[in-house]
Amino acid sequence: MFKDAFVTEKPPIKNRRPLTLRDVSEASGVSEMTVSRVLRNRGDVSQATRERVLEASKELGYVPNKIAGALASQRVNLVAVVIPSLSNMVFPEVLTGINEVLDETPLQPVVGVTNYDPEREQKVLYEMLSWRPSGVIIAGLEHSDAAKAMLKAAGIPVVEIMDTDGQAIDACVGISHRRAGRKMAQAILKAGYRNIGFLGTKMPLDHRARKRFEGFTEVLAKEGVEIADREFYEGGSALAKGREMTEVMLKRTPELDFLYYSNDMIGAGGLLYCLDQGISVPGQIGLAGFNGVELLDGLPRQLATMDACRVEIGRAAARIIADRTTEAGDSGGGERVELTPMIQPGDTLSRR
Amino acid sequence: MFKDAFVTEKPPIKNRRPLTLRDVSEASGVSEMTVSRVLRNRGDVSQATRERVLEASKELGYVPNKIAGALASQRVNLVAVVIPSLSNMVFPEVLTGINEVLDETPLQPVVGVTNYDPEREQKVLYEMLSWRPSGVIIAGLEHSDAAKAMLKAAGIPVVEIMDTDGQAIDACVGISHRRAGRKMAQAILKAGYRNIGFLGTKMPLDHRARKRFEGFTEVLAKEGVEIADREFYEGGSALAKGREMTEVMLKRTPELDFLYYSNDMIGAGGLLYCLDQGISVPGQIGLAGFNGVELLDGLPRQLATMDACRVEIGRAAARIIADRTTEAGDSGGGERVELTPMIQPGDTLSRR
DNA sequence: AAGAAACACTTTATCGCTAACATGTGTGCA
DNA sequence: TGCACACATGTTAGCGATAAAGTGTTTCTT
Q: Number of A:B CB contacts under 8 A?
């Protein structure tokens, strides 16, 4: 038919059906299997045909169909990464660590965002698992029962990250937020502060912030100190919120001599507020945040904080997945990596 | 055999092969096809069987295999999103917009990060296209020839975002950075500033920053004004860099009366530096950034900036993809959406 | 009351690839 | 010379789903 001749001559960009291995095999005069071998660098293929195939493939602009490939080989080089948010900076940094390690493997991360919503987490997880990834990296140890069941049933490596205070499904990489809270409390008490205020996010769903808070109050309680005031926020620009909350709290409870913020962003806001108001830091009032975000480097004074080891968490988690998918006898299971965050006293903690 | 009996009785979490439609169909006594129909809510199924199937499916913990589904139906509900970075905050916001829109469709975004490296972009794109997504959203108009070829050949909707100054492959959503640079220059000149310094990233690969710079200098030139000093940075904490660069520049060129920063983060650093030094802003020196990041709300003074419409860009891009994949006659092609960024003069531009 | 149409399913044939095995060469070694 | 064996390819049979077409039942129609 004319039409066919046409199509063969110069595929009119539009109604051209997608290229397959067959097209490449015909163009290079070998079997589809050989083309497949060349494209995957697997098995014995002579240099001559290899070149011929590669050329034909490039010529046509062929892009392999991984869907078909994955189905046939029962192997998917994807790693599902499920995190609560991208606007927190914490998680992009974790992703950086994951990328770093996976870049040297055939594995590829796929990110899903839950917005701190367990229901959404479950949905996202279901979606991701339906692509049959080689592994899952998921933030937190708290998940819906259904989500836990899915993870257990998936039969793939699962690494829960960020937090080690709790029962992991399989492997686990993170820091103990409870301990982090305790450490900070100790440091603050040691510096001599006694009237301590806490400022943070509303915590029903931010389990890690909650655990830090619990560890924090636990140590204070042992010394007979109670949180003198507290304030919680939700949404909005964290920096601005930090400002506002600090103002509110200092007006309400002027005798405070220390403010512990559940993250560096609101802490930075508080710091800026104090400096604005001419409040002497850390003399009159001490401040500390949590996370060690890079941002802080540019502030007029260095906020005391605690590094959450974000990049390292990402790296370690990715390494576990990579090792387990590579190693023949899919060895391990249940790895547990607890990193130790260090206090960075900055300029706002020691009372000189 | 004993072993089989065992496996049937109580699948010992380990050597259990993954569940398939067949397992569900056997468990509920209908054909695989019927199960498939139920799970996808498609076609006629009686209420009775529907329930039976759903129960069996939940009971077993079945998760459909989208790989197989996609291959069979030749439909993949993924949208590839290719962006240069996640640590810039600009892109997470774009993603937010994309998510917002796609959440109401069956489509799902998959993110790839290029680190501003064209070669990496090409690789990431290749990877993504090999999953045969329903569409591509990609940042920028500048791509390697091979990347452009792939995009053209893919036969799917392609939306290039962020930038409208140039030739799009297919659709395009963004702002004109050249115009944004021009507008800012006009506003600065109008406010009476004449000794203007520019601070930004090293630009070989950040085409949008480059275009803003070009637009900016173009307008200045028309008025016979030349950039009095300039400074570029790379890597590190943007806030800290803003501080440092500002210090360096003001020491080198004390007669400057305005500093234009290529992004808000370094602008904020500069602002903090000026306030620290007791330099009167905007009296003695005016400042402006670019992007309208939320962060700025918390600063002691509101930095002049220009909203880059990030969330809206994400929304519009996603809408184009969604519309084209839904609509029967896959209508359009070549949509072009140019958004208009507005100057937010804040407290650092008008000379009172 | 007979044919059409709606319903509730099942059967069959792919989708594009890869695993596993089959086939056909040339080489080395006894 | 012949047999093993590495190499270079081809063949066949799925992977787990869905589209499309097929098979019985009901339920309208008029």
A: 126
